[in-house]
Amino acid sequence: MKRIGETVKRVVKRAGVVAAALLLGACATKEGGYGVGAQTERAALLQAAGQKQDVPDTPGMYLGLIERMQTQGLYYASLAHIDAYEKQYGVSPDSILLRADALRMTDQPAASAAVYTQLLKTPLAARGYRGLGLLAGAAGDFDRAKQALSQASQLAPTDASLLSDLAYAKLRAGDIVGARVPLMKAAELDPKNPKIVSNLALYLLAAGRAQDAQRLMVQQNLPADIRGDIRNDAMKVVAASRALQRAVATPPVVSRGGGPGGPIAPIAPMANNQGYDPTLPLLQRFAQ
């Protein structure tokens, strides 16, 4: 009986030690991991360690990783990696551009504009002007947007996406006639770009070519919500165009010694001297 009692005491003592160890382990886990289980915490640490090992060891590869992050919409994460990149390799025009884009996409327009401005004296000046134009457009200042995007297109004349952005800014500013040439360039340079196709449909609607716009949207299988957005934008473009026409047609204040200014004829978006419709070949190409 004495031996049995001693055995029981030893078992109870060991159980107490184990319980104390478990309690201490739980407290340490809670304090160190804020309630995260030990196994989960260990897995997170292993994952983090694996990510550290995967960080590219060359500037070009690291920039490529950051670009992929932004393509996936991970703009906040990309900002952290841009900080790490510049700490390790220094500031470069490419890292400045990535930072400016990330700031714009995380709703930090003032900071983004300041960083885009840094690009204007670098080989990536076109991207800087484009970023400033996109920021202006997002703020509803389409006159300033088309000025910046026009400067960008002069530096990068074959960038189809940039030309499409310029055409859209011109449309939203009410300049339907001015939007035609950059949009036609964009559509011929990159006819499969859905954004460019959408802007072409917008142009056709604003120019009074509703049937052609509808036919194009059907041919390109644009979703119903996109078609609705295009129609809503078309109403805004038409309103801006009418406001522009009224502003241009308003006689200026007559100064002493000057004659009154006569009204200017309304804008005819599709008119030209030869009576030739420049959009027909492009629309026929889309229909094929």
Task: Give the key terms.
288 residues; mainly alpha; Serine Threonine Protein Phosphatase 5, Tetratricopeptide repeat; 14 helices; 74% helix
Structure, briefly:
With about 290 residues, the chain is an all-alpha fold. The protein is built from 14 helices and no strands.
Tell me the CATH topology of the domain at 146-247 and 279-288.
Serine Threonine Protein Phosphatase 5, Tetratricopeptide repeat
* Span between termini: 99 Å
**Main CATH class of the domain at 146-247 and 279-288:** Mainly Alpha
Number of discrete helical segments: 14
Let me know the largest β-sheet: none
Mean pLDDT: 80
Summarize the helix and strand pattern as letters. HHHHHHHHHHHHHH
Low-confidence stretches: 15-50, 254-275
Strand content: under 5%
What structural class results from the helix and strand content? mainly alpha
Total count of strands: 0
Relative helix content: over 70%
- Could you say which overall geometry the principal axes of the C-alpha atoms support? globular
Which CATH architecture of the domain at 146-247 and 279-288? Alpha Horseshoe
